[in-house]
Design a protein that fits this description.
The chain has about 70 residues and is mainly α. It has two helices and no strands. About 85% of the residues lie in helices and about 0% in strands. α1 packs antiparallel against α2. The model has no long low-confidence stretch (mean pLDDT about 90).
Length: about 70
């Protein structure tokens, strides 16, 4: 893998991480402000699981990219 490709992939991962953080803030805001129980709890659980999964995948990809950069 060449250096330019690794930099591009890291840029994409950083952008995705920013998007997930923004979505996490929206999730937290809805979760905290829902005192009346008007939000579907199943939807919130699924949304939280999706965010957790995305953070996990981003982390694994970043570690893989670190490995590739060390190899070169």
């Amino acid at each position: 893998m060449n250096k330019e490709l690794a930099q591009y992939i890291n840029t994409l991962l950083a952008e995705k991480e920013r998007e997930v953080k923004k979505e996490q803030l929206a999730y937290n805001e809805i979760y905290r402000s829902d005192k009346k129980g008007s939000v579907d709890p199943e939807r919130m659980v699924v949304w939280g699981q999706e965010l957790s999964w995305e953070r996990h995948i981003i982390y694994k990809c970043q570690k893989a990219m670190d490995y590739f950069e060390e190899e070169n």
